[in-house]
Amino acid sequence: MENEFKQQQQQDVEGDEDKFNYVNLNSVSKALVCSICQEPFIDPMKLPNCKHKFCKKCLPLLLTTTKISTSKSSTTDTVTSSSTTATATSFRATCALCRQECNFEDIKECDDDTLNELLNELIVECKKNKNGCKWKGPRSNLNQHLNTSCDYRSSKLFVTTENESRESRESRERKEREDFGYVIVNCPRKGETIEKYEMNNKNRKLRKSDNNTVFECNWKGERREVSNHIENECIVCKIEKENI
Question: How far is CA 191 from the centre of its chain?
Answer without folding.
Answer: 40
